[in-house]
Design goal:
This protein is α/β, with parallel strands linked by helices and 334 residues long. It contains 11 helices and 13 strands. It has a domain at 9-178 and 224-253 and 291-308: 3-Layer(aba) Sandwich (Rossmann fold). Helix 4 (94-114) links the parallel strand 4 and strand 5 (118-122). It is globular, with a radius of gyration of 19 Å.
Length: 334
């Protein structure tokens, strides 16, 4: 499926996991006219940018100052994809999350819409809270109950956009469990694939949380896992489809067990599976979802027809081409 690439793109979070993968996909299509915005802190996410091509780079604080001082500066952009946010589900600084995830998004969205610029932003599947069935964008937003402050900061902007009518003119993306290259800098927020790969290399075993529900065995908890290469194709499709407005789930549409994920990982490294089950921290037990699966009706109705990679294919590509070689996404890779 081919998409019409925008004339000039403002990409926040462009050095991060999904943002740099999106820039990689654009580079592969011959597009290098993006202005990247991020916060290059003490992590090594700057390394994600090294192989990539883009027009310019701005720190997030500089973007905020420029938009507040001279909003007409945004007129040079056809599209703003706002992926920049604190994505840590364990962050407890509520004021920081409100400034960074809510206030910044609100300012940028209002500025874009007022100037007729297409605006696409990252919401999160975490806004569904403890729900485990019918994870659909058609659920009333006011009925959702996020389980952590990160999710609430995302949910609050969704509510604001709905209440003010912004949602009818912008596009929000509810990413499910995305994994793949360029997540090295995320530390404990990396996917289980990345962390379990390290466990296998170090100890020859994958450790998963025990189940605390009588009706679900250890390892049978399920998640909607999505390879980042599929996530960015969905993102790019929606970003370049002006009629696609409102909230969209970004997932595979299929739930897989943690055990299945671990077995796919062992297969990729060509070892017999060795899985151990460990206690879940007490602070997580009342916030743990045992099943997530994205409903993709809206994405399909918008015209996206591509099937996602199988879990085995996604894990295999990640392990063989990136984790085992300790490399990042490069648009010049074979």
């Amino acid at each position: 499926m081919e998409f019409e690439v925008p004339g000039r793109l403002l990409l926040t979070g462009g050095a991060g996991f999904i943002g740099s993968a999106l820039l990689w996909e654009l580079n592969r299509r011959g597009f290098d006219n993006a202005v990247v915005v991020d916060v290059l802190d003490r992590t090594e996410k700057w390394k994600n940018l090294v192989p990539l091509r883009f027009h310019d780079y701005l720190e997030a604080a500089a973007l905020l100052e420029r938009v507040e001082r001279q909003p007409s500066w945004l007129d040079e952009f056809n599209l703003i994809v706002h992926l920049g946010a604190c994505s840590s589900t364990t962050e407890t600084d509520a004021a920081y999350l409100m400034r960074n995830n809510y206030g910044f998004t609100k300012m940028l969205a209002e500025a874009a819409v007022s100037r007729g610029i297409r605006f696409v932003y990252a919401s999160s599947a975490a806004t569904y809270g403890a729900l485990e069935d019918e994870l659909s964008e058609s659920r009333p937003l006011a009925s959702l109950r996020p389980l952590n402050m990160y999710a609430y900061s995302k949910h609050l902007f969704d509510l604001y956009a709905e209440r003010t009518g912004l949602m009818q003119r912008i596009t929000g993306l509810k990413y499910f469990n995305v994994f793949g290259p360029n997540e090295q800098h995320k530390g404990e927020m990396r996917s289980v694939v990345a962390k379990a790969y390290e466990q296998i290399q170090r100890d020859g075993v994958v450790r998963l949380f025990r189940s605390y529900r009588d009706d679900i065995s250890d390892g049978e908890q399920r998640r909607d896992f999505l390879y980042v290469k599929d996530a960015v194709r969905m993102t790019l499709f929606l970003a370049t489809t002006p009629t696609a407005v409102g909230l969209f789930n970004i997932g595979s549409g299929t739930a897989h067990t943690w055990r299945h994920l671990a077995e796919a990982l062992f297969c990729a490294v060509r070892r017999e599976p060795r899985i151990e089950y460990i206690d879940m921290p007490m602070e997580l037990r009342n916030k743990y979802q045992y099943h997530t699966e994205a409903r993709l009706d809206r994405l399909r109705e918008a015209g996206y027809r591509e099937a996602s990679r199988t879990l085995e294919d996604g894990v295999g590509d990640y392990v063989v081409r990136y984790l085992s070689r300790n490399v990042r996404l490069d648009p010049n890779e074979a």
